[in-house]
Design goal:
It is a single chain. The chain is α+β, with helices and mostly antiparallel strands. Helix content is 22%, strand content 37%. The protein is built from 3 helices and 13 strands, in the order E-E-E-H-E-E-E-E-E-H-E-E-E-H-E-E. The strands form 4 sheets. It has a 6-stranded mixed β-barrel with strand order 1-2-8-3-7-6. Strand 10 and strand 11 form a beta hairpin. The relative contact order is 0.15.
Length: 208
């Protein structure tokens, strides 16, 4: 479920509504494009989050609190939401997780790409764009695959540095057991057909 909404008074596209996420995340690249001097606005944090690369943690730059608005000028809701500032590539500009949904008392319906919440003038119903959701999913898979491949290369490089020089030596090539035998190792025998051209090849080391 991907929506466009207003953050800090600016319209932000490609905001993922993720009811399975325990954090709200906004990306440093998004803040830069918004023109915010966020370096002085964030507060330090020591809590990592996961799911960028399976089994690997990512450390946010800090936390920042911004206003988030859903709806239209005639019916809208605004709340101040605390975001973790992430400094890595993503197909989304921000991610709203359970903390934001709870504060807005919002209910997502993912099969219908629909988000509902109470507003001052009735229920707010916000619909996502199916094509945008699909495109973001495809890009997310590509970014995750690239990050995982880079992480694998880093692990190999680290292990290589830590290994002894003897362990890095390439072992001698073993002889190929399927290589054709040498002429000294084979002999021709008569098949007893009376035709000297009809013979069989056997090992020269077989006993008579």
């Amino acid at each position: 479920l991907v929506l466009d909404l207003t953050i800090a008074g600016m319209t932000i596209t490609k905001v993922l509504i993720d009811g399975g996420a325990g954090l709200n995340i906004i990306f440093s690249d998004t803040l830069r494009k918004m023109g915010l001097e966020f370096a002085e606005m964030i507060t330090p944090t020591s809590v990592p989050f996961y799911r960028r690369v399976p089994g690997k943690a990512a450390m946010p730059l800090g936390q920042i609190t911004l206003s988030v608005t859903f709806g239209t000028p005639t019916n809208y809701r605004t709340e101040f939401i605390k975001f973790e500032v992430a400094d890595f590539e993503s197909s989304y500009h921000a991610i709203l997780g359970r903390p934001a949904l709870a504060k807005f008392m919002a209910i997502p319906h993912y099969p219908y790409l629909l988000l509902k919440m109470p507003g001052p003038n009735g229920i707010l119903s916000l619909r996502g764009n199916l094509k945008c959701t699909f495109d973001c999913n495809v890009q997310t898979i590509q970014i995750a695959a690239k990050a995982q491949a880079a992480n694998g290369r880093e692990e190999i490089a680290t292990v290589t540095v830590e290994m002894n020089p003897e362990e890095l030596e390439i072992p001698a090539k073993r002889p190929n057991i399927l290589a054709p035998p040498k002429e000294a190792d084979i002999k021709q025998i008569d098949l007893g057909t009376g035709d000297p051209s009809k013979t069989a090849t056997i090992s020269a080391h077989l006993s008579a």
